[in-house]
Design brief:
- With 261 residues, the chain is α/β, with parallel strands linked by helices.
- The protein has helices at residues 9-26, 41-52, 80-87, 109-122, 159-165, 186-190, 205-213, 246-256, and strands at residues 2-6, 31-34, 62-65, 67-69, 99-100, 128-131, 153-156, 180-183, 194-199, 231-236.
- Strands 1-10-9-6-2-3-5 form a seven-stranded parallel beta sheet. Strands 4-8-7 form a three-stranded antiparallel beta sheet.
- Strand 2 (31-34), helix 2 (41-52) and strand 3 (62-65) form a beta-alpha-beta unit.
- The radius of gyration is 17 Å and the shape is globular.
- The termini are close together.
- It binds 2-phosphoglycolic acid (PGA).
- 2-phosphoglycolic acid is lined by residues 37-39, 132-134.
């Protein structure tokens, strides 16, 4: 695992944009794994800018998103379908028929989870997976206590996640936040060839400490990434606030940059 500690979210988003742009330039048919939340918004703006400037094209890419709330239609403003369309897909040249977000309205959730896994496999697997991180250590919606081997599944959300996400719902109304989601599993995420995780702000300190320096445990699902062989964690100084080995991570990064070697 490589840890890049940046001054602020702007610098972190810029670094992540460079990684994604280089990846798509190298392989125009990249299968992207995408994430929602406030963390990737700036990165998505930078990708759209680079696309408009002709630096990179997403025309031949496919994408798979991590998760979706159960019960929200794609047109619901808080759904992750809507988020992706308005924050990224409408602003880049990707073929929207090749973008995938789990179906939160499926009648048979188990069958639709299985189909989602099959679609990822049929696309050849995810080349580069973007992740945020929850304050409770979740990645996608894999909450503490979930299996570290699980595939796409339905997940009951923790009270912590529901209250973290209430700010995004009308007037912060917690009762409007769905209590379950469909999410790619830790096992699905671990299959991505490359992982880029972004974390900004003090609220992510505990989660980042658990991810990078904690024991691998289901109580901190992101810690499974310690077993991924091409994972870069990009965090700002605040999110890195509880790491013990900061000086060493900065030294490594100064020597090798984003490369995993
Ligand atoms: P955030 O969410 O980017 O809005 O902080 C991250 C997550 O819960 O995975």
């Amino acid at each position: 695992m490589k840890v890049a500690i940046v001054q602020n979210p702007e610098e972190g988003s810029k670094l992540a944009a460079e990684i994604f742009i280089a990846q798509v330039q190298q392989n125009p048919k990249t299968v992207l794994g995408l994430a929602t939340g406030s963390t990737p918004v700036k990165l998505y703006n930078l990708l759209a800018e680079a696309n408009r400037a002709g630096v990179v094209s997403f025309k031949e890419c496919q994408s798979f998103n991590l998760d979706e709330y159960i019960g929200l239609a794609p047109t619901h403003e808080q759904s992750y379908h809507y988020f992706m369309k308005t924050q990224l897909f409408d602003h880049i040249d990707i073929d929207q028929t090749k973008t995938h977000v789990p179906d939160g309205l499926a009648r048979d959730i188990a069958a639709s989870c299985k189909a989602y896994e099959e679609a990822i496999a049929a696309a050849g697997g995810i080349d580069i997976q973007l992740l945020g991180i929850g304050s409770d250590g979740h990645i996608a919606f894999n909450e503490p206590g979930c299996s570290l081997a699980c595939r796409t599944h339905s997940q009951v959300l923790t009270q912590q996640t529901i209250s973290d996400n209430a700010r995004l719902f009308f007037n912060g109304r917690i009762e409007e936040v769905p209590t379950q989601a469909v999410t790619m599993g830790i096992g699905s995420i671990m299959d991505a060839k490359r992982v880029v995780l972004l974390a900004f702000g003090k609220g992510k300190q505990e989660a980042i400490a658990g991810l990078v320096e904690g024991a691998v445990t289901t109580m901190c699902p992101c810690s499974a990434l310690q077993y991924h062989n091409d994972c870069i964690v990009i965090c700002d100084e605040e999110a890195a606030g509880k790491l013990r080995n900061v000086a060493y991570y900065k030294y490594i990064f100064s020597q090798t940059g984003v490369s995993n070697i």
